[in-house]
Model the fold of this input.
Amino acid sequence: MEIVKTDIAIIGGGGAGLRAAIAIAETDPKLEIALISKVVPMRSHTVAAEGGSAGVITDKDSLELHFKDTVSGGDWLCDQDVVDYFVEHCTEEMTQLEHWGCPWSRQDDGHTNVRNFGGMSTARTWFAADKTGFHMLHTLFQTSIKYPSLKRFDEYFALELVVEEGRCQGVVAIEMATGDFYFIQAKAVILATGGAGRVYMQNTNAGIVTGDGMGMAYRHGVPLQDMEFVQYHPTALPGSGILITEGCRGEGGYLVNKDGYRYLQDYNLGPVVTEPTPKTMELGPRDRLSQAFWHEEQKGRTVETPLGHAVHLQLMHLGEKKLMERLPFISELAKTFLGVDVVREPIPVRPAVHYTMGGIQCDGTTATPLAGLYACGECSSVGIHGANRLGSNSLAELTVFGKLAGEHAAAFSKSNHNSDAGLLEKQAKDAMDRATALLNRENGKERVAVVRDEMATTMEEGTGIYRTGDGMQATCDKLDELRERYSSVQLQDRSRAFNTEWLTTIELGYMIDVSQAMAHSAINRKESRGAHQRLDEFGERDDKNFLKHSRAHYNADGPPRIDYGDVTITKLPPAERVYGGAAKKTAA
Amino acid sequence: MTEQRREIEIEVLRYHPEKDKAPYYQSYTVPFSDDTSVLQGLQYIKDQLDGSLTFRWSCRMAVCGSCGKMVDGIPHLSCKTFLRDYYPRKVRVEPLNHFPIVRDLAVDQSDFLQKLASIKPYIIRKKEKPLSEGTYLQTPAELARYKQFSSCINCMLCYAACPQYGLNPKFAGPAILSLLHRYNADSRDEGKAERMPFVNAEDGVWGCTLVGYCSEVCPKKVDPANAVNQNKVNSTMDYFLRFMSPRGAANS
Done:
């Protein structure tokens, strides 16, 4: 096993990890940084974000409004002190990206432009056409090359954290090309590993979005917080799950059912408007829109496609010029994957799992309960998304909290020393032995793809857009069974070099753990809030008992233990969450 | 789009560094429908037929740049190339040309990544403007000057297409020269002088012999050949102006 010593190890090279790395390098160029990622950074899933990134910039807007939109959008399960910090720092980060070269779309006078987004009360979403994540990621990646203190470990698969004396002190990784093990010893570790959308069958996520970082922290006793809140994006392509940005609706797109009817007016999102109107109709929040689809499907008013039921997203009325300028990638995706010309035809779309609101519990500084371990981006639950994230808050989150994680991890690394090398290496070797045992296992009966697909199917069935106690129980039971069967997964490939079957199987172990955290958090939340909606007797929000963060604690011998933590409410007391005409009335 | 399922033969190049002296081909029969991509065909093989087949992929929506392969001899993103277009013939899938093979369809990307890091692909300013002063102004016309070149997804298809890169691996190559041009053409950047040596070098723009196949295979219409050509002009100007200006043309 190779041993590498560094000051700070960052796991994950997407937007959050890169932003953290740059923050460390700018804080103190003498600190050594190891950036470990299972893909070359610009392949990370940030690349697929389309619509944009929030930041208050216009005269009509205010931090107060961004705060209110975020807290009410999250159905009051947000930590308001952290939301305050977040909205105060978004614009600065968007400006920073601009200085680093991000090709933001512009107004005629040269100022950056903003567009409308779901659940936001005014236009505050900065965008680079409809490839915002792609441009932010490449900008951060290319900028990161400036800093010589940053050493990248591209295509190194992070296997396990090393914890000694109650502090996280490094990570064991596999060099994918060779299968060789590395122990990367560090004084502080930042997890920036992204979400876990791949635990569901139909999702918008890249194949790499498997919750590894969540699983790694979880197995060391760090709670996973608010995991029952899984966002279904209302507009993805049927079958493939490919994302069709909310920006389509921000630019004025309509959603219609099989009768050509703008059905959202039936779900407290009206009145019908022809121009994009904040918080109204197609610009309602994602949870409400996905729920409306579910009801339309129940009523038999959706369109049948060979790949399942869908509704139609109409963009034709926007005209070719605007589509080419604002939505060129969507136009390309619709053409390539469905043969649809958006200038002339609607795009069939349906909800698909998109985002994990919850994640690794951390405080407003990104510190987890495990000393020396920080978490930022989608893998974390810093407290800003609550029960439903607003579109364009996650790209902003990467930068605001990526930077913060870098700064705090840098400070921690300077005031802490590593424990005895022998103790750390012993642990690293144990991790290596576990992974090697999986590789060398014989006579296992299970195939990794079979267990994976059964997991993704049961998650979809039991913990989907609408949930019932019985359905969730069936999923919890099924996950128990799959966890058992996972221990007899047999690899066909027993070699070392670039063995993706081996790595996929390690990922699946983490995915099953994360699924259990989601399903058990869900069944224990006996209310309906944001993205967690129950059809049984718990169909209403219950602030008395459940205005609380749920926390799943890992249990090696069975299902997780669930307990609860307080939500920080500072200035916006819980109220009814309203959109469309009703929202206007409330505001007036 | 139809539900009809047919079967196609996918012939894949295999090579394992621990076992094989030389690459060989292996054939698999894969069911497909009209919307099945070559990538999904490979995933079917991996999941159902042969867990040892190795290839990179991630976003499956043509933006992460991971899944480039030679498909019937032409560089393609395998996620946006469809089996229907090869049926009823078999389709052959190989690793990208001109790169060393790590295993099966996965190639060694390190040469590309080193080149990317060498050309200063970031905004260089003589004096940084404080964030408190806000963003730089950039008109849509100024944005349009580099926008297309900023759309490169680093999939390396253009390197697999480029005969010059095949002959001379030192050649900077299409995507890297496009990236360099992307920063030189950005109204916010003042680092052109620092990058011109890469452009002018023998392995810079002058390594290109104007085949143009790079632009043909580019899945994002970046048109790297255009970037290279604009830089041949820049390089020539830089050469002549050097005799006229004591500071060097690129600073002006």
Notes: Chain A touches chain B through 65 residues (CB under 8 Å). Chain A has three domains: 2-48+133-229+357-424, 234-351, 427-534. The radius of gyration of chain A is 23 Å.
